[in-house]
Amino acid sequence: MKVYIHTDIEGTAGWVFYAKFADQGPMNVAHIERMNRLLTGEVAAAARASLDSGADEVWVNDAHGPCYNVLFEELPRQCQIIHGRAGHFDGWLSCFDSTADALVCTGQHAMAGTPHAVCSHSMWHVNGDAVRLSEATMAAALAGYHSVPCVCVSGDDRVCAEVREKIPRAEAVTVKWGIAAQNARSLMPQEACERIYDGVCAGLTRRQEIPPLVIPGPYRLNISDRDPGKMILPKDVEGEDFWETVHRALNRTGYGHYGEDATDDGSFRWPPDKTER
Ligand SMILES: [Zn+2]
């Protein structure tokens, strides 16, 4: 069994603030390191649950901001990690195809405009607003394109509510409850990790009963960031093939270069200076 773990950070227990990479001051750096440690704990819990449920392959996709957040040296040795140079992977779910048996998403946050949600952002507008997807349910839909079910999502209470609505058979593990944009009631990391472990085990056990999330086409896509009323693309991107249309839309936003052969032009060095994280 091959499990693909797609990770974000804003839905991690204990996260309420972004840091700015442009600020290399000690408090900011300590904050980044601490959040990355908390993120890693939750990813490791999902990875352990996958292995204990019979996975012989666990691929971890480090997908937040600079895409270089997970302290991979702390993951179980059987894992493989996909990371580095944000927006220059082969796809938003990099290396994902129908050879995966299940998708797991950790650290997920609510979509743009969700009241009282922590660091809510991103909304996919599908066919006008016939369907609205968060980053978590977009990941599930991209897996669904390959007929792979999303079996477990962890994150805040708002994204879990969205997952329960769109993928009712999947496990949704709430690790914190939003109070305001940067304020939450959160589980302690150890408890969050235990609940994620249990959720991933339960989801993988029932994976045959969880239908892949398939968004029917044809498609007309747009995306907003913080303000769900403000589309990033001046014109909707249209297409018949979901995976291809999503990536064409992402590449038109200006911060995605998915599937394009990126050369080392010297413009991306560690630490990335413009990435909010
Ligand atoms: Zn993120």
Structural topology:
Elements: E1 2-7, H1 26-52, E2 57-62, E3 79-82, E4 102-108, E5 123-126, E6 131-133, H2 135-145, E7 150-156, H3 157-166, E8 171-180, E9 183-186, H4 189-205, E10 219-224, E11 237-239, H5 242-252
Parallel strand pairs: 1-2, 1-4, 2-3, 4-7, 7-8
Antiparallel strand pairs: 5-6, 5-10, 8-9, 10-11
Bound molecules: zinc ion.
Which CATH class is shown?
Alpha Beta
CA-CA gap between termini: 33 Å
Content of β-strand? 15-25%
Uncertain segments: none
Number of strands: 11
Domain module tally: 1
Description of the molecule:
The chain has 277 residues and is of the alpha/beta class. It has a single domain (2-120, 134-218), classed as Rossmann fold (3-Layer(aba) Sandwich). It is 27% helix and 22% strand. It is built from five helices and eleven strands. It has helices at 26-52, 135-145, 157-166, 189-205, 242-252, and strands spanning 2-7, 57-62, 79-82, 102-108, 123-126, 131-133, 150-156, 171-180, 183-186, 219-224, 237-239. It has a seven-stranded mixed sheet, sandwiched between helices. A four-stranded antiparallel sheet has the order 6-5-10-11. α1 links the parallel β1 (2-7) and β2. α1 packs parallel to α4 (189-205). The longest helix is centred in the first third of the chain and has 27 residues, at 26-52. It binds zinc ion.
